[in-house]
């Protein structure tokens, strides 16, 4: 039995300790915003926050996150989550959209640690999140926009 807190809710799960967190989130909890891409920690599509840190859920055994706070894109709601959602919408970031939950979670981890990152800090923090559609310039603009927003409303 493993205790898992996902998006503020506690779950008790009968699951082998080495099962990747991604499968527990998607298959057992049926929270499907987090995507499977490479399964090898190479693309970032599966990124979630674990105690605020960007974490590749495809290679993280569920036992490693027992007792920690896991947040998926569905759980990123108030404050920073709202700013990111607005900024992503206003910059029209997504193309096919597949990579975007992982991109947003990586951006959330960045802004959680560095509230006003410069281009180099954004590029360094986001370099592990691949986008086949090439939305990188819009992602960068959206992160700057989210950083400039007050928590209550967008700048525009
Ligand atoms: S699916 Fe986890 S990094 Fe690609
Ligand atoms: S928006 Fe299509 S992979 Fe990034």
Automatic annotation (TrEMBL):
Gene3D superfamilies registered for this protein in UniProt: 3.10.20.30, [2Fe-2S]-binding domain
Protein keywords: 2Fe-2S, Iron, Iron-sulfur, Metal-binding
Recorded superkingdom: Bacteria
PROSITE patterns xref list: 2FE2S_FER_2 (PS51085)
UniProt cross-references to CDD domains, sorted A to Z: fer2
Every 2Fe-2S ferredoxin-type domain range: 1-76
Keyword Endoplasmic reticulum attributed: no
InterPro entries: 2Fe-2S-bd (IPR002888), 2Fe-2S-bd_dom_sf (IPR036884), 2Fe-2S_ferredoxin-like_sf (IPR036010), 2Fe-2S_ferredoxin-type (IPR001041), Beta-grasp_dom_sf (IPR012675), Diverse_Oxidoreductases (IPR051452)
Pfam families, per the entry: Fer2, Fer2_2
Protein name, UniProt field: (2Fe-2S)-binding protein
Species whose genome carries this gene: Desulfuromonas versatilis
Source organism phylogeny: Bacteria, Pseudomonadati, Thermodesulfobacteriota, Desulfuromonadia, Desulfuromonadales
